[in-house]
Write a structure and sequence with these properties.
This protein is an all-alpha fold. The chain folds into three domains: 43 residues, Arc Repressor Mutant, subunit A (Orthogonal Bundle), CATH 1.10.10.60; 154 residues, Tetracycline Repressor, domain 2 (Orthogonal Bundle); 65 residues, no CATH class. Helices cover 76% and strands 0% of the residues. The protein contains 14 helices and no strands. The chain is globular and about 60 Å long. This is HTH tetR-type domain-containing protein. It comes from Neobacillus rhizosphaerae. InterPro entries: Homeodomain-like_sf, HTH-type_Tx_Regulator, HTH_TetR. Pfam families: TetR_N.
Length: 278
Amino acid sequence: MIKKQLIMEKALELFAKQGFEATSVQQITEHCGISKGAFYLSFKSKDELILALINHFMMQFISEIDYIVRNTNDDKELLYKFYYATFDSFHKHSDFAKILMKEQGQSINKELILKMHYYDRLFETVILSMIERLYGKEVKQTKYDLIYCIKGFMNTYSTLFLFSNVPLDVNKLSKSLVEKTNLLARHTTVPFISQELFQMFNHPMNEEGTKKEQILEIMEQKIKEMVEPIEKESLILLKEQLLEPTLSPAIVKGLLENIRNHPHCKWISYLLRGYFKL
């Protein structure tokens, strides 16, 4: 586990400077100070390493944003917290954000494209749930346009501070985008993207975690790996709840809180929140 993390961290440094295609396995192993044999014990190929990096960062990001949307009780604060968490994450992981934005427009790797499409769809689902909660029937005809407006804001302003060295004031930017989003939500009357068009853009998701059996498989692996007693016991109880529901929603939510901040449990907590609709 430690060696895989080292390879991922060092490879990210090279990918940020050179891009995916221009970086070789040889360069990665030299940068890590390990042999090619040691690399291939951790990853079957450079493509597998790239997908592992994408999974690592996107799972952390999606699970955190989803948690904020589900657990912010004050609607007046929700949109601000959403934007703040998003740009704060981009800022903290700027190397990854840069290569992700560059590679999405250049990659011909089908598996990479499908992976990014999958996470993009998950993110759109989180945005849609936030829009419906904040604006309700008021945006029935325009909510799908709003999804792309919000994503457009994020892409545009991320590009500014990632590639143009514009100073980032996350607080001011978040407040500005809250104002812009509210104006669009309350005054846009001509929809362009219908529900049918939105669904046509997005193919059905087919990834781990979409079925009960797959969630159980991930949980069993995490239970084996976990050494911390509170997180391990919480995972065991959540697995039992998945197999035979007996606990109240409040208790399930408390168990999810026990595991949410553990770096190896963020994704499973996200999947379980969706499954239990919490």
